[in-house]
From TrEMBL:
The lineage of its organism: Eukaryota, Metazoa, Ecdysozoa, Arthropoda, Hexapoda. Residues 200-339 form the Peptidase M28 domain. It is found in: Endoplasmic reticulum membrane. Belongs to the nicastrin family. Keywords: Endoplasmic reticulum, Glycoprotein, Membrane, Signal, Transmembrane, Transmembrane helix. SUPFAM superfamilies: Zn-dependent exopeptidases. Its main location: endoplasmic reticulum. The chain crosses the membrane at residues 20-39, 507-528. Coiled coil: none annotated. PANTHER family: NICALIN. This is BOS complex subunit NCLN. GO terms for cellular component: endoplasmic reticulum membrane. GO terms for biological process: regulation of signal transduction. It comes from Bicyclus anynana (Squinting bush brown butterfly).
Amino acid sequence: MWLDQADGFAEIFRGYLPYYLLVVFPIFIIMSPANPVAASHEFSVYRMQQYDLHTVPHGCRSASFNLEGRSLSSWSMSRHCVVARIQDITIDQFVEIRSKAGALLLVLPKNDTLLTDEQKEHIKLLEMAMMQQDIGIPVYFAEWTPEFEDIIKDLQHSFITDDKSGTALEAMFNTVSSNGYQIVVSAPTPAKIDSKPVTIHGKLVGRSGAAQTIVIAAHYDSSSVIPELSFGADSNASGAVAVVELARIFSRLYSAAATRGGPSLVFMLTSTGHSLNYFGTKKWLEEHLDAVDASLLQDISFVMCLDSISSSPLTMHVSKPPKAGSPAQSMKARLGAPLVHKKINLADEFLAWHHERFSIRRMTAFTISSLQSHKDPSRNTLLDTPSESSFRNIADNIAATARALASHIYNLTEEDNEEDSILYDEALGVDEASIRHWYKFLSSQPRSPQVITSTAPNGGVTGALERALSKYLETTVSAHALDKREPEYALYSPTRAILYVYSVKPAVFDLILTLAIVAYLTLVYFAIQLFPRFYEEYAKVVTGKAKVN
């Protein structure tokens, strides 16, 4: 009976079903991933900064790529996308990747507060080096996730180079058995953003007949290598908060005729800072100085710019040392700040400080800052995040600045301080709740020029600051247009994209798999062709022995 069943089984091999079963099923089993869900990932990523300043390109110029992912130690060609933690890559490695690799993906720290001071300084210097170069390959940044951490570890351990393998056979085995990743970003071609920088200003009029004017200015944008993650708690949320708080303090003093100061006070906030050469301030000055009615900026006593004041001590930066007895010298003495003198170099691509825009127009101007140098990398970093200690410093520095400014306006001396203690303690008292609110709000919003100059003047951060100043001043919002023929700068999108990571085997695995499939099909073919003959011979032997018995 079992021989009859075997005859039927042999007859099946002459049909088509075994060809499908023996060929298709094993191939599917070999090629299918053990965990289909883990075979692909989707992440939101941020493209590196891209802008032109006076037609000079800066930052990343590409957006899309479809490349094989490799680690810092295993990449070797332009078909590779290098994946690494931002704190692990050196400046030299970045320069090499920029010129030879196909793309770069950097994963940000899980918690920047856990970074050492050396790691933070390294990241800041790396950002500075990246922004000084025109980069042709796509560069993206991703926030830390457990999935990204696993991908980085896989890439670090999967691709073992020949020099790290004991034998050539071991190197081949490591290459075939390793898991790879195909990394894909499909983003539109970079295009210019319709940018409309904005300047907000308001004025407190001094006593009748007094013509002198004091300008208190700050920029409220921020800058880093990642536009979508530029929060700029120190540079320059701190300066913008100070302008709003000083406007509140002096609006109370100027609201009564008995305590109104002699000079008029102009409070100004601009949406373009040092990364775009204070373009908004330049346009604002042109509008108010070159106009027929230039009453707003008549007889400027001095311009005080506030930039990065969330640490101590404060420093006064000037383009020209103030003369003895001048208002600027009076402010220096009353503030007790050391002086840093730096001449304006018009040949430089960037202006050093905000006050230089005013100094170029022959105004007495200076910048109050906690930073000792305009080259400090803290001005352009994604690590510029808020902290409780920074808030305390901001509140103290605003109070010190308000006292110094009031002392100058009302011409108070040390002998007058005790007599006018009520003025200092009550009228000049800072509102810490308000400072905390605005510091927290501004430092939680990305404020890169790409974000804030592409929104409506009455929307977003700009609208919020305008409404804040309008509580104390009669404000005016000025939107500035770029020169269409020769624009001073150009900003580009996209600033973010969706990144897809697919778990794949390396290319050499496809070759080995192809050879294995060919060998398998050959074996199956000959097994199918020879099975009937084998079965007939086997049946004869079995039948013959049965007959003998």
